[in-house]
Amino acid sequence: MTDPLLTGKPGRIDLVEVPPMIYLAIEGQGAPEGAAYAVAVQALYTLAYGARFAGKAQGIDEKVGPLEGLWWADDMAAFVGGQREVWRWRMMIRAPGWLAAAGLEDLRAAALRKKAKEPDLVAALGRVALVPLDEGTCLQALHLGSYADEAPLIARMHEQEMPARGLAPTGFHHEIYLSDPRKVAPEKLKTILRQPVTVKED
Q1: What is the C-alpha to C-alpha distance for residues 101 and 14, in angstroms, rounded to an integer?
Q2: Alpha helices (H) in 118-160, listed in sequence order
């Protein structure tokens, strides 16, 4: 069954209610094409697939979900100005329902044994944590195309849709990557754009 929170019509902006979720998550700073970002994502997938195999051994078959990211900057003008080196991010993969803190430590220990000769990955594995996220009411849209072409749709969400609905942004810009950019042409990439909102006070 398709998750209704991971679908949409390209370009349409929906108001959705997102329940609380628990994620495997890691934070960092820098451009998404940089080495720090790449090793952080590798650490996430290492533990996410470790969790899947551990779950299957217990008779629980939960697939690894899509990569997700929260994006911000100390000065949000950095996004407009394209100062990618100061972008901050929290990359995430939804944790399986059975995974608790003790289970994560077991997965981490197993991964560290296997990756002991990769110091950058070892360091990143040590930074992955179980993190709750409760976004509640959100505006959400499905973007079809290159990541570099998201700006007009994001602008619509903030400059048109929010004022029209009497809403204001709260929390971080959230992206959910439904496509693998290594396998899908840029013009066919599917990305969920999500922004938590609250009723704007007069």
Answers
A1: 34
A2: 119-125, 151-156
Domain range spanning residue 81? 21-133
Q: Token digits for 78? A: 């950095």
Tokens at 93, concatenated: 């993969």
Contact 64, 45 (CB under 8 A): yes
CATH label of the domain that carries residue 170: 3.20.80.10
pLDDT value for 201: 80
Claim to verify: residue 31 and residue 91 sit in the same structural domain? yes
Residues 97 and 64 in one domain: yes
How far apart, in Å, are the Cα atoms of 105 and each of 79, 112, 143?
35, 10, 36
Dihedral sign of CA atoms 37, 112, 46, 95 in order: negative
HSE-CB at 8 with a 13 A cutoff on CA atoms is: 22
Which of 87, 115, 133 is the endpoint of a domain? 133
pTM equals: 0.93
CB within 8 Å of 99: residues ≥ 6 apart: 22, 51, 55, 107, 130
Instruction: For 155-165, write each residue's pLDDT tens digit.
Output: 899 999 999 99
Q: How far is CA 135 from CA 132, 160, 172, in A?
A: 10, 21, 9
Name which residue leads in pLDDT, 75 or 8: 8
pLDDT tens digits, one per residue of 142-200: 999 998 888 889 889 999 999 999 999 998 999 999 998 888 998 999 999 999 999 98
